[in-house]
Amino acid sequence: MDAKVKRPLNELSATEIANKIATGETTCEAVVRDCLARIAARDNVVKAFVNFDPELALAQARAIDRGPRQGPLHGVPIGVKDIIDTADMPTEMGSPIYHGYHPVIDASCIALLRRAGAVILGKTATCEFAGSAPQETTNPHNAAYTPGGSSSGSAAAVADDMVPAALGTQTGGSVLRPASFCGVFGYKPTYNTFNKQGVWPAADSIDTIGWLARSIEDITLLTAVLRMETPASPRKLSAAPRVGLCRTEIWDTALPESKTAVEGAATALAKAGAKLRDIELPQAFAGLHAVARSTVNFYERAACMAFLWDHERDRLSPQMRRYIESGRKITRDDYVAGMRRLDQCRALLPGVFEEFDVLLVPCVPGEAPKGLGATGDPNMQAIWTALHTPSITLPTHRGPNDLPVGIQLVAQRYDDDRLLACSQWIWGRIGTPDMVGARRSS
């Protein structure tokens, strides 16, 4: 029998699953059963899922198989970060305070996915309130290492073939960092591309819903659904992309494996025909990552958590209490000054991208750190999140412990389609399928 026929359905991409169900080659129930089997075999180690009901998942699958075709994701299982409301299963925010909490309605993004025919397979582990206090999720490549956060379970589940794609959220680096550490694609669109109704806020002026997936084609399909568009074939570039190699001011904080990934990618892309040049950001961008993380993020988070601080403080983690204490010390004047700095730099972005389609920048300091007590440094993603630019990480390299190290591509605001097209071109020249996911751990 052909090896492709033997490939478990849970290892297929979302696009492949949708196509096979549409042509009658398989059923939604068969796909979900393979995903459930993978979860049963591996989640005692990976611990990617928190609120998870196999019978509910199968009931959704059977209903989809019995009914008419619903949309472009008909029968595709999706994982959901557990700060996103789902009407049929708990949303617990990674906190004992919300244990057993049942929302009345779905978040908008969940409603749109169900409308397109997706199966909401289960809720994936999140750091407490999308902060930095992790749950028990491990890196599927090596359980002694962090998967990153705060979209820990979403990245780990996708990397371990439990589900083809999963929703995450990013306020600093909570989609791209775990994607890099776990060896999958992580995509954060332009700010407010995906509606945030029903998602727990951390810092509302920069919070962004994003995707974790095993292919760029899947990200394009899933993005169209959440943008309420009819999916189309991925855009293709008419010429090689113009790539700006931007090391950023925190380049010296990168470990050798991250520097090697970025510079190795730049060399390979230049050889492949990309128009590549070095670029330095204007002086106005200096120190912006600290403004994003330590001023805007903490100030807005302290306001968001006001009730829990006043009434449930003892049940918050030490990390969250430090966040809130820091935010409460920030003056309104300092917060406004930080927002003005961000506005100033956003206004400079057209000049930055005038001669480039995308910037190639470091994504993470290095491979995933050892231990599960922390989720890694988000600084290399935080500046782009705060600037509202779309960004993506590609799983192109590995570090000294044979753990994944991704590169980050950034585009101008609202130029997401160009970013995805450039990413596909770049991946086609420097990426290899065996770099994606963690099947060697099975």
Tell me what you see in this structure.
The protein is of the alpha/beta class. It has a domain at 3-226: Amidase signature (AS) domain (Amidase signature (AS) enzymes, Alpha-Beta Complex). Helices cover 40% and strands 13% of the residues. The protein is built from 15 helices and eleven strands. An eleven-stranded mixed beta sheet has the order 1-3-2-4-6-5-10-11-9-7-8, with helices on both faces. Helix 8 runs antiparallel to helix 15 (416-430). The longest helix has 21 residues, at 332-352. The two termini are 22 Å apart. The mean pLDDT is 96.
CATH architectural designation of one domain:
Alpha-Beta Complex
The 3D shape can be described as: globular
Q: Which stretches are low in confidence, meaning pLDDT under 50 for 5 or more residues running?
A: none
**Roughly what fraction of the amino acids lie in strands?**
5-15%
Helix content: 25-40%
> Total strand count, please?
11
What value does the average pLDDT take? 96
How many DSSP H or I helices?
A: 15
Return Rg in Å: 20 Å
Tell me the CATH superfamily of one domain.
Amidase signature (AS) domain
**Order of helices and strands, N to C?**
HHHEHEHEHEHEEHEHEHHHHEHEEH
Q: How is the largest sheet built, in terms of strand order?
A: 1-3-2-4-6-5-10-11-9-7-8
Largest sheet: 11 strands, mixed
Termini separation (Å)?
Answer: 22 Å
CATH class of one domain equals Alpha Beta
The third-level CATH topology of one domain is Amidase signature (AS) enzymes
**Class computed from helices, strands and strand pairing:** alpha/beta
